[in-house]
Amino acid sequence: MSRLASLLKHPLRELQSEVDEVVSPGRYTLLRRKIICIMVAASLIPLSVMAVLNYYEHQNAMAREIQNPLRVLVNKTKNSFELFLAERTSTVSLIASAYTHAELADQNKLARIFAVMQKEFEGFVDLGLIDADGNQINYVGPYSLKGKNYAEQRWFQEVRLKGKYVSDVFMGFRKFPHVIIAVQHTTEDGRTWILRATLDTRQFERIIASMSLEPDADAFLVNTEGLLQTNSNNYGKVLEKMALPLPPQTFEPTVLLTTDPKGREIFLSYAYFPEADFVLMAVKPKASVLKTWYTVRGDLLFVFLLGVAAVLLAAMGVTNALIRRMKEAEDRRELALREVEHSQKLSSIGRLAAGVAHEVNNPLAIINEKTGLMKDILTMQQTDFPKKEKLLAQVESVLRAVERCRGITHRMLGFARRMDVTSEELDLGELIAETASFLANEAMHRKVEVRLDIDPELPRIVSDRSQLQQVFLNLFNNALAAVADGGRIEAIARPKDDGVVVTVRDNGCGMSEETLNHIFEPFFTTKKGTGTGLGLSITYGIVKRLGGEIAVESTQGVGSTLTITLPKGQREALA
Amino acid sequence: MSKKIKLLLVDDEENFVNTLAERMKMRDMGSEVAHDGETALEMVKDEKPDVMVLDLRMPGIDGVEVLRKVKKAHPDVQVIVLTGHGSEQDQEVCMQLGAYEYHKKPVDIDRLVKSIKGAYRQKMEDMMVAATFAEANDHADADKVMKESDD
Fold first, then answer.
1. Residue A530 sits at the chain B interface (C-beta within 8 Å)
2. Do B16 and A364 make contact, defined as CB atoms within 8 angstroms?
3. What is the 3-state secondary structure (H, E, C) of chain B?
4. A415 and A448 part of one domain
5. Within a domain: A323
């Protein structure tokens, strides 16, 4: 965890040290994993936060959009109910005051009035006249309630008190849910009567039906004691206790998000009636209301996942490219190090050889002089003794051996000189011939014709012998690898302006356009499994270092031509 | 070559240089021997050798320094360098400082003798040229004196 933290703080430094310190082949896997983790974390965390914020924003906006129509609907329906009740109440009130007691007490007259009422307003079930003591004086309707006394009933007491009364829904004698509208009328001479009409609550059902709710939605009327006034789909039958708790009282239409006893999340919109003890409630399950929201949520999720996938792909791609670059750089560095190491090794071998040669030279000189003196004595002075001739032969033999040693030490010194990166005047033709001779054996074995065409006017150039040897060795090697048995390799050297042009041509397999484009890149090889892909890149490096140019031409199936231009060069002034 | 060539052999390897001196004597060359740079410089001053055979690597004053000093003080002494250690750079430096020839040890005696004789001839030629110039100068001086006395 702290590792990650420091990685986040100094990613470059950490990665650099990572590159330096780990040397196992698995380091790149580890490094790749780390880089991908950082990249993914850095892009996915903000993306996720955005997605979550968006999610809640959208959800809230959607909820508001859903609640508003619900509120409007409840308000409208409440108004319908109020209007319905107000109309009926004022009708009853009008009849109570427009007709005299005598008229209302007349069975026929009341029947006629009731018929008109039923015609004009739907929902009236019966109409009755009750005196101040609660006795039913006259009645029109499907039941025979005449003579019944209501004095003890609550609605009677209420109407006597307030003058007007709209009851809750109740069963009463009639055995079906109904609402009583009762109006008290008092004439100027103090006579009081009560006109009572019963309303069929099917009218309520009709008003609720006019809300045209979806099948899974529910709307009903309930009284302030929680008794259902109309049937509910989910929360009980009429006059049963409603399965939901009563919401806090408010006359404004309000929407609550709550959970019903069945555990469903519901939007409960409701409004209390100011004039009657009713509460109108409409219930919509959240799930159905939020259907649109779920679609939006699906889209959001899709976009989010798409983003995640893109981030992952990008992170992998970028990291892979990065790792590849690093690997290449590492390989190149290693190669350079190996080259340096190699040349250092050679130069120290050279120094050692030179040291040995120098040290051996002095005692060798002593042997040479001592033996020389012996020879002088034997030959220049007139001495004679037995076996003089034999002794002289021994001395001569020692002198020859010294001569041989001299040859060896001088060659060692020459080798040491070659190991140093030096420039010397050299005959390029001779060098090419010498280098070609290294491959003569293989060429002969494979019946490959090696033709050297060196211009005799070729100027001597100042350059590095061993490096040039390596260059031509590489070119000849490549040519030999390209030609079939019995093929032909040509090396042509010609003077040019201020230098020399050497062309190495073969009639081998040639190269494709693709290969030509990569030919001087390190590690590019067509010799699957056997090549290191270094030969031509080293050749290129050497030629460039020596101030020359290298160019390649090739036609597939016809052969390749490599052209090297070398400057004449100048002998460096010695200090 | 009527006159005996006076040789000075300079080398810290006594075994080598003494033997070489003996062989040179057998070839009618008067050989003196010095085992270090200081002695060599003294002997050049005292003995006035014709040719000097000089080793490069020596304790004290080394061969290159001896060569430089000898060529400065006694340019008529011809110096042949004979060394076991010489690199190409050493050779270059010695030739620039005016060495007659440069040989690597071990050297064939005939080759060395040939080189010494060449050096001696070179010295003789140089002396002759110098003498001619000196003579010419003497004449010029004499003319000058005469003219002055005339006035």
1. no
2. no
3. CCCCEEEEEECCCHHHHHHHHHHHHHCCEEEEEECCHHHHHHHHHHHCCCEEEECCCCCCCCHHHHHHHHHHHCCCCEEEEEECCCCHHHHHHHHHHCCCEEEECCCCHHHHHHHHHHHHHHHHHHHHHHHHHHHHHHHHHHHHHHHHHHC
4. no
5. no
- Categorize the per-residue pLDDT at A419 as very low, low, confident or very high, splitting at 50, 70 and 90: low
Q: What's at A237, amino acid-wise?
A: K
| Structural domain that includes position B39 | 5-121
- Note the pLDDT of residue A1: 43
Least-confidence region, from A143-152, A365-374, B106-115: A143-152
Asked if B106 and A373 come within 8 Å (Cβ–Cβ), the reply is: no
Domain with residue B114: its CATH number is: 3.40.50.2300
- Residues from chain B that touch A376, judged by Cβ atoms under 8 A, are 23, 26, 109
Judgement on whether residues A91 and A201 belong to the same structural domain of the protein: yes
Q: Quick one: CA dihedral B88, B94, B100, B105, positive or negative?
A: negative
DSSP letter at A427? -
* Residue A422 per-residue DSSP state: -
Helix axes A291-380, A27-98, angle to 10 degrees: 170
A406 is a domain residue: yes
Q: Count how many residues are written for chain A.
A: 575
- Tell me if A357 is assigned to some domain: yes
A504 and A547 belong to one structural domain: yes
DSSP 8-state secondary structure symbol assigned to residue A245? P
Separation between Cα atoms, residue A27 and residue A38, nearest integer Å: 16
Chain A residues in contact with B108 (beta carbon < 8 A): 403
Say yes or no to pLDDT of A25 above 70: no
Whole-angstrom distance, CA of residue A498 vs CA of residue A478: 28
Indicate the residue among A289, A311, A330 that finishes a domain. A289
Burial B110-124 (b: 16+ CB within 10 A, else e): eebeebbeebbebbe
* Residue B62 domain-assigned (yes or no): yes
Do A374 and A501 have their domain in common?
A: no
Chain A (327-356) residues lying within 8 Å, Cβ to Cβ, of chain B:
354
- Do A400 and A530 lie in a common domain? no
Residue at B26 is within a domain: yes
On whether the CB atoms of residues A138 and A107 are closer than 8 A, the answer is yes
Find chain A residues with C-beta within 8 A of B20's C-beta. 369
Is there a contact between A370 and B13 if contact means CB atoms under 8 Å apart?
A: no
Considering the domain architecture, whether residues A247 and A98 belong to the same structural domain is answered as yes
| A495–chain B nearest CA distance, Å | 29
Total domains in the fold of chain B = 1
Looking at residue B52, its pLDDT comes to 94
Are B99 and B63 spatial neighbours (Cβ–Cβ below 8 Å)?
no
Question: What amino acid occupies position B124?
Answer: M
Residue B97 lies in a domain: yes
Question: Is B61 a member of any domain?
Answer: yes
Boundaries of domain holding A165: 61-289
Q: Contact at 8 Å (CB) between A428 and A471?
A: no
- Please tell me whether residues A119 and A213 are part of one structural domain: yes
Cα distances (angstroms) measured from residue A506 to each of A39, A440, A478, B123 = 51, 15, 9, 60
Subunit contact A362:B19, Cβ cutoff 8 A: no
CB contact under 8 A, B19 and A370: yes
In a domain, A280, yes or no: yes
pTM of the model: 0.42
List CB contacts of A387: < 8 A, sequence separation 6 or more. Answer: none
CA A360/CA A163 separation, integer angstroms: 146
User: How many structural domains compose chain A?
Assistant: 3
Asked whether residue A99 falls in the same domain as residue A227, the answer is yes
